Structure formats: structure tokens, C-alpha cells
Amino acid sequence: MTSVFYRQPKHRYPCVTRGEGVYLYDADGRRYLDGSGGAAVSALGHNHPRVLAAMRAQLERCAFAHTAFFTSEPQEQLASMLARRFPETGARSYFVSGGSEANEAAIKLARQYWMARGAGKKRLFVSREQSYHGNTLGALALSGNPGRRQLFAPLLMDWPKVLPCYEYRHRRARESAAKYGRRAAGSLLEAIREHGAENIAGFVAETIVGATLGVVPAVAGYWREIADICRRHRILLILDEVMAGCGRSGTYFAFEQEQVVPDIVTVAKGLGGGYQPIGAVIARADIVDTVVDEFGHFSHGHTYVGHPTACAAAVAVGQVIDDDGLLENVRSMGALLRERLAAALCDHPHVGDIRGRGLFVGIELVTDRATNGAPRAELGLPQRLRDDAMRHGLICYPGGGSADGQNGAHILLAPPFIYSSDNVDELVMRLGRVLDGLRLG
Ligand SMILES: Cc1ncc(COP(=O)(O)O)c(C=O)c1O
Predict the structure, then answer these.
(1) What is the pTM for the complete model shown?
(2) 207 Cα–ligand 1 center, Å
């Protein structure tokens, strides 16, 4: 009898005992190919010696010191590294322990920024339907994810939601991608007309929608349109790259491929690659300066903000990405993965779409390809697929509700950046076996 309150208390979980590169092993000696880094976390795979050494060195120097009293070398190094990667000079980073915390902090920073500028009416955060920004109440209020919101709806701030940019299901027949992008972005304009730009502090969105839709990048031009709308209406553009950032899409930030620069970007998962829980809010210099000039400080904080060992792990992850040329590997292995998946699954009756950027890939499942029908929620497909994949020695990340918030299903793949072409082939082979058995009558 266990004393653990599991995610799914009735489910029996194998006990993980070891991780090595792209593989995880359980207590029965079974080996699993990591095809999704859990939920897009394990950017460098498991037990990377350089990250372990950096953590060990920091643990031996000083595991933790509270940021009310000290800064630390790893925190300074990590902030410099992110400032170098951010396209505009002088960006500042605030380190937290995960994605939800990062988005909470981003909301508060944006609010405090507008207060500092004498625009205290700006209090609403517009976000998109079919999105996920975290499970704390503020981040959940941002999230347009009906399944995760349902029980808590009465506790959540009622902030406006606009349409996502979801070409596969929302682009009309004979509508060009460019026209569709403008229509999707126009949904933000409608919200601004309804609620008033003077009341809106920020627009929060995932640059590439991750777990809710199954890896959906926007059509070309959409983000430029959105950035323009935000600038014209004095609304901060806050991009959530908790999943898509830190190299996963093939560039360090996913927005680099969209020719926009957000005012604030949040990152987490790949930042520490799972070696430590860490997330960051990265903000343009003038946002931080405005807040500090007016208030003297950012009115926020948690005990583990700027945790030295977490920062040391993240610095090491970032160094390995650079030293081993892993962004290039993400681009080439990502292209290979999509190519091999397309070849292997082109005739599969239930594969409707394969999409993504870099090593961030989504496969949308349909009841039949003629109608792109969405698998019904009652089928419990995500859990079935997860269990089946594990039986076939594969970790992937299936999700549901992609089509309309309730129905629909997809599989999210987010393999470690160290994947080789053999690993890609093994992933496609194992996933093929899982999908071979899939029948949606
Ligand atoms: C885009 C996005 N934002 C925020 C979060 C929340 O991050 P965390 O689970 O680390 O709190 C997630 C988690 O999956 C995410 O995918």
C-alpha cells in the first residue's frame, strides 16, 4: 500500500530507477525510449555528465541561499546567458521554479509596469482559447483549456479569450494562409474593441501551442500582425515559451522564427532540462527599469526564486546546447523526424496531420481522413495511447481536446536534443507499432 497521492491514484506506475541518454529504465529492467522528454522537459536526455558535474560543484559550494540576502554566481551567469540570447540588449531575468510560476510572475510584472506608468486601469490579460499557461490560479485563468479549468471556473479571473491560430481546423477552404492569419489575429482586435485597450495590460500566448493542440505553430505573418496590434494599442506582448523555448523549436526562442520580439517571454521546462525545477521571466530592459524607477523593486517573490543549484544546472544545460551545436541537431533531427513520420504514417487512416518545428512535433488523430472527424473524448484515447506506448517501450505525450476543447486527440513528441538518426528511426518504429493497433470505429 502506497502513501503517495498519485496523479492518477488508480493507475499503476512503474518505478523509474535509472536514466541514461535517451533511455529511461524501470525497476523491472524495462527500457523506454524517451520520445517526449516527459512533457517537453528533458532537453539533454538523462544523466548528462556535464550537468551533473555542475550541480555537484554548486551543491558542494552552496546548495541554497535566499535571494533576499544574496545573489549567486550561477544566477548571474544564467541571467547573462539569457540576456545574450534575447534579441534586444539589456533584458533582465527573474528565476522561479517552473512554468506556472513564470507566468504568474509575468502577469504581476506587466501589471506593475502599467501601474508605474500611471495606467492603473490596465488590469485585463487577454489570452487564447485552446491554450495552457499553468495550473496555479492566475496561470489557469489565462489558460483556454476547458478540461483543466472546468472544476475551478468559479475561482478564476474572467479574462477575455480570443481565437487561436490553428490552421488545420480553422482555416476555411479557399482561404489563403495569409488571409487566415489576419482573420485569427483580428480576433484580438475584436477583444480590444469590446474591452478597451485602456483596460488591457497584456496579451499572453504560446508562440507554438503545445499540449492543448498538439504542437501548432501559427501561420506565417500571424505573429507580426499580433505584435503590431499590441504595439498600436499599448498592450504588452507576453509570449509563453515554457514548452517551445530554450531550443526546442530549433532556435533558442521560438519567436526568433516569427520576426517579432515580445516584451516579456517566459521559459521553463528546457531551461533546466529536468535536472532541476526552474523557470524564468525574461523582460525587456525598459519594463524592468520603469518598475524599479517607480517602485524600487518588483513586488513579488517565492522562497526558491533564483535557486543557486537550479541556476547552475540551467547554465550547464545552456552551455552544452552551445558547445555541442545542439540547435543545429534539433533542426536536422526535427526535419528527419517529420520526414520519417510522414513516410511511415502517410496511409494511416487515423493520422490527420503531422506538424511542428525542430524537435517539437505534433500528430493529430482523426476518426477518418475524409472528414477529419475528431475522436470523441469518451474514448479516453490519450491514456490508452500513453499506456500502449509504454508497453512498446516508448515515452510519448498524447493529449485530448485538440479539436474543440473536449474532443480530438494528438500525440506530442519532444525528444531530447541529443537524438541521432538511429534514435529517430527507433522512435518512428515504436510509434508505428502503437498506432498500428489503433482502430477508431
Ligand atoms: C506552455 C506552457 N505554459 C506553462 C506550463 C506550466 O508549467 P509548469 O507545469 O512547469 O508549472 C506548461 C506546462 O505544461 C506549458 O506547456
Answers:
(1) 0.98
(2) 13
